[in-house]
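Minutes, project check-in
Item: structure for the 80-residue chain
Input as provided by the requester:
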Amino acid sequence: MFTITIVESKEVKKTLPKVWAKIGQEENKSVFNDERVWVSDKMGYTPETETLVTDTKKLYEQTVDQLDLRAVIATINKII
């Protein structure tokens, strides 16, 4: 059995949404006026970012018992 699949792939600009994440650290001082200091994670939303992603879409798929590979290659080369 042979499966013929035609897939379209293209680069697309996509805006990634904001995400709640660790965005840094901050120092906290003691409320008792002594010299104790500790560091804690600062949480917040990351900015929206634009990135390139590969968008893949299956256009055609067919399964056959026999395949003339020469004819398939010749047909594809004529299309291009």
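Outcome recorded: The helical segments are 69-79.
No further action items on this chain.
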